[in-house]
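Lab channel / #folding
Pinned by the channel admin:
"Please post every new chain as: sequence first, then the structure tokens as a reply. Keep commentary short and put observations after the output so the thread stays searchable."

First post following the new format, from NK:
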Amino acid sequence: MTDTGAPQKGRMEDRRRDGAASDGGLGADIPGADSLRADRSLAGRFWADFSRADSLRADRRRADRELLERALAGRFPKPRLISPARLDPFADDDFDSLEAPPAAEESTVGAGGGFWRDALLRLRKNTGAVLGAACIAAIVAMAVVGPMLSPYRYDEQIVGNDSMAPRVPGIERLGFLDGGETLKTSTGSASVNKYRDRPDGDGLYYWFGSDTLGRDIFTRTWEGTRISLFVALVAVVADILFGVGYGFVSGYFGGKTDIVMQRAVEVVNGIPTLVIVTLLILVLKPGLLSVTLTIMLTGWIGMSRMARAQMLKIKGREYVLAARALGAGHLSLIFREIAPNVFGQLLIMSMFSVPGAIFTEAFLAFIGIGIPVPMASLGSMISEAFKSMTVHPYMLVFPVAVLAALMLSFNMLADGLRDALDPKMRDL
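Reply from TO:
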């Protein structure tokens, strides 16, 4: 029998040697041989880079060690001084000197002038706010000096001078405000001028006319404006003193204190204003005191909620926590760290509460539970003039115009303050 195993074994050994000689010992017929060779090449490059980086780190440590030894031995070379002439390659006459252009006028807004200065500049650029402030200033001036300009008192009744139309010296020559009025009757209309029917009519003037009892409307209008401004002042003081303090305490301490104080606010807010006024009238006699107490008892609720919301927003800021960590007390944190940062928002809220207080006083006087006669109030004057509005409309025009101008001016000024003081509106 012939031995066929020896030649086959020799051929397998030759094929194995050929595969080992080519491709680094991996046969081409083995599955995944290409990926194994790529991984081996990548590992070789990585090891070479690592060895090179390690060598660089060793060289850097060696250089740092030599530098430290030289520094300790004091063998640093002395620096050489180079003359300025060698550093400047240009001659003196290479350039011509020119005068600097005049500096452009920079805007002072946002240029380090301070927050309140920037707010004032923005407020001055707001036409509506400036117009509202000017109107408020004019009304305040007339409320102070207006009753002094008239020869009549606000409670003076002159028999025979009732329902006289407005007459102003100088303007009467233009045919306007000359004391004449047109009365409408069942048979038609008739023009009447009571000043001409009186023997002393040439020197008799009522600038806003007279009411049905012969009282001067000009004097009573500005006297009633005084009461409206007083009520506005009381509303602002009550908001700042009571509302802000109540809201700050409630929001600062939080917890059970906040819960109890807010429930008390909800109870007070749930009582209608007319009920409070009626109870005060039963205890006190009707007058300015009962109206003032009503506004003080009910007008601070909105301000307290605003102050509480601002306190909850600010008390967790970093600067407040830093001041507390430095040992600041409760009063110091509230009035030195938190209150100055929310003063703008509280001022805006106070300005918005003024028209509401003025309207509340006028409404109470209009329905007859406000300022009693003979004291003058814009609300009581409007109530009296409303009865004769179709016959003598001038009795209603002037009190309504002053009341509307006063409320609108405060609203315009409050809008301007909000735009000027609110940080979110600075870039708008």
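NK: The longest helix spans residues 33-73.
TO: also worth noting, Residues 1-6, 19-29, 103-112 have pLDDT under 50 and may be disordered.
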